[in-house]
Amino acid sequence: MDPLSSLPDEILTHILSLLTTKEAASTSILSKRWRNLVAFVPNLDIDDSVFLHPEDGKRERDGVLESFMDFVDRVLDLQGDSPITKFSLKCREGVDSDRVDSWIVKALQRGVSELDLSIDFPYYYYYTLPSELFVSSTLVKLKVTSVYDDFFDDKIEDLLLCFPVLEDLQIANMERANLDVTVSSATLRKLVLSVFGSRSYRNPKSICFDTPNLLSFTYLEMIEEYNNSYSCNVRKKTRNLTCVQLCWQSNPTIL
């Protein structure tokens, strides 16, 4: 027996959890034992670019995207109801949005505590995150990134009410009206907001914190052109906030 195979299942499962899901799944061909181990990996890292690259043009080949989606379905089916600690999903145009929803819902049903979503669907998809996300009682960390769209229709103050144990919230490419914002959460420790601004559509004038455990707040605004009218007042009702970063950048190519 080789030294690696002599290790206990707990250690091998931990090693597999440090790999991308594609890499971890590839070990299942080694033996039945390795196939069973993949079923209990608590961290899933699914990235369509890892599956579809490095070959240029592979994404456009017939059946390749379908193979990627079938792969994700098989991995989740193989794992059954085993708990998930972290679920990371990165995908873009061409992936079926209904299947994306089903993957996220399955992770939520299995008690995921860390959810990292980078979903780059074009605006004409009119994609919104599944409603099951907003009743999660297990999420401790939520990170959402989109190049093209803002997935959240609710105000951030309403959004936080959905997650009773959330400690880390990171949202990239939000779009918000020129209103005062109140962030209220008893559990939140880290908040990162990256938002759009323009001449006709401005973001929050002020942000008020009622977050007794917040330690870090980062606010990044992308604007068409910077002038002194772009400002954001931060008012805090929190004992422990030690890191505040405010940044405005002009980057028309992103808008």
UniProtKB/TrEMBL annotation:
Domain F-box per the UniProt entry, residue ranges: 1-38
A Pfam family that the UniProt record links to this protein: F-box
Domain of life: Eukaryota
Name of protein: F-box domain-containing protein
Source organism of this protein record: Eutrema salsugineum
